Every structure is written in structure tokens, then in C-alpha cells.
Fold this protein.
Amino acid sequence: MGNTNHPNKLVDKFGRHVDYIRLSVTDRCDFRCVYCMTEDMTFLPRKQILSLEEIYQIAQAFTELGVRKIRLTGGEPLVRTDVMSLVERLGVLPGLEELLLTTNGAQLDKYASALKAAGVNRVNISIDSLDADRFKRISRVGKLDKVLTGIDAAIAAGFDRIRLNAVIMQGYNEDEVIALADYAIARGIDIAFIEEMPLGEASDHNREDTTCSNDWVRSIIEAKYGLENSDDTTAGPSRYAEIAGKKSRIGFISPVTHNFCEDCNRVRVTVEGRLLLCLGNEHSVDLRTILRDESLGMDDLKNTLVAAMDIKPERHYFYDRDHPQPVRLMNMTGG
Ligand code: SAM
Ligand code: SF4
């Protein structure tokens, strides 16, 4: 390695151009959501996780290869010590057009205005119930009022766009589709419904009993509000619909029932520095070894990223129960 012959962009074998990365900044979390992790989750030893400097170097390499959009996720990004120092550096990273964050919202009252000032354009805030007891059942330890205060703080901070994320599950919150949509509509913010994915361990339930299709969720909303499809995809997996006269958009992320792989423009990096070419396949590349090898530099990292595009799989198989699924936890992967 060591040559600088890489093209200035990331294109895979299927002609898809990768210009969006999701970086997991921690596997840790102050919640234990039933669809994401077990109650007695064991987190990674510190030496296995990337330093904030190493995460920054990865972001830099990607932007030099044409990535324009970075989402920080986890785990819960806001529990990482000193995460704001990373956010501030990314906020002024040359070439980066959008810096996004996905959070459970529990600490947004503390961080929202600093995130906005550091250059975060948009935030996604996960909320699966507006009922305090249910919220606790789903998150196992989360407090609803902290998240609601966090959402208010995000609205007050004036991000370009705020989107709520809700995973609707039979037996947990399937009767709250309208309440959650109404909550978003009343505040003029977006909401996306995410189908529960067969990733990691759901120890409290059997996913075959809980997973709700977004066609069903959509039909519930459509019965109250007429929905019109929007062309705006915000270059992610969400398909949006609009409600006449309302500012809020309703998004549907439907990896289980609708395959959206043909226009996939993104890859992920885990907090261990593993580049994941697809959420639903095992294909990955170890970046941490390159970062920690003193004989290698930025060009080696960039060459590795370019070469990795060749193994980006064509699609995932979440909808095929007979197809083996990768053994992954969402907090490790970066949802
Ligand atoms: N802690 C932050 C949060 O909850 O927003 C960021 C990380 S979390 C892994 C990112 C998103 O993934 C959340 O919206 C969460 O609801 C979603 N998620 C986690 N596990 C999931 C699963 N098995 N299926 C579908 N969505 C999942
Ligand atoms: Fe934590 Fe987010 Fe996973 Fe919930 S979904 S346990 S908040 S990482």
C-alpha cells in the first residue's frame, strides 16, 4: 500500500456512489431498549474502541474521498466522554456538508444548543411511546420526561430538521401510531417509523410476534390523514409522505418488507473501527489495524476504503427468514 492512486470517490461494483457514512462513537448506552440490546449487556473494553482522534481520522479520510454527510450514532453518542470535542472538529471538516446525530434524547436538554453551535444540521431522536410506563418497559431504564424535555430543547435550538424515530412493535406500542404521529405534527417536526430488524438479540420477545410492517403502520396513519408520497428521500433509507397543510413529514424505513438496496449510498464504521459495507451482511474491513500501525498513513487508509467498495454486497435479506442474518447488535453496529 502507500500509493496515492485512489480515485477521488467511492463507487461500488454496482455503480452505487457512497457519499454518506454512519459513525458509531460508542457502544455504550444509558438505555437498554428491548429491540436493541439485552438487559445485562456487556460493553467493549476501552482499548478495543477507537479514540476520538481515530474516529476523526476516519471521517477525514472519507470526506477526502467525497463523503458529504456523516451521521454520529451508537450506542448513545451523547454518553461518550468528551464527544463534543469530536463534534466540534467534524463541524468544520472541509468537504462535509451535513453533520447529523441520532440520539435517544435523554441528554439533549444539556447538549442541544452546543450541538447546533458546533454545526450539527439535523437530529433524529428515538421515542417509541408517550406513556411513561410503556416507555420504561421498552427502554427498560429510560425516563420519558427526560426525552420530552430533550425534544423541546432540540426544537428551541433551531436545527434545520428534527425527526423522531419510532419502532412499532405488536404487544408494546402498536396502538400509539397516531399518538406519536400527532405529537410530531403538533410540533412541526418529522417522524419516521422503523420496522424492527432481525439484528442482535431481542431477549424479551420473539420478533416473529412483534414485528409490524410499515404498510400496516402507514394504513393507520392514512385512515386519519391522507398521505401523499414525497420525492424527498434526504438521501437515506427513509421514504417520506406528506400530509396536506402540515409541515411534518411521515417517514417509513421498511428494511424488512421493502428492499431499498439499489440506491444505497452509505456504509458504517463501528466503534471498534470495523467498516461495515452493509447492515445486513457480514462483509467488513478492519480499519483499526491500519490506524494503529505507525508505518501506515492517511493514504493507506483511503486506499483501503476505496478497495473495500468492491465487497459492498448488492443487498440484504432481512425479508427472507431462511437466509442467515448477520450476528450483530445495533448498538455495536451504529443504527
Ligand atoms: N441511541 C441512539 C438512539 O436510540 O437513537 C442511537 C443508536 S440506535 C441503535 C439508532 C436507531 O436504531 C434507533 O432509532 C433505534 O430505535 C433503532 N434500532 C435499534 N435496534 C433496532 C432494531 N432491532 N430494529 C429496528 N431499529 C432498531
Ligand atoms: Fe440505546 Fe439507542 Fe439501543 Fe435504545 S436503541 S438501547 S437508546 S443504542
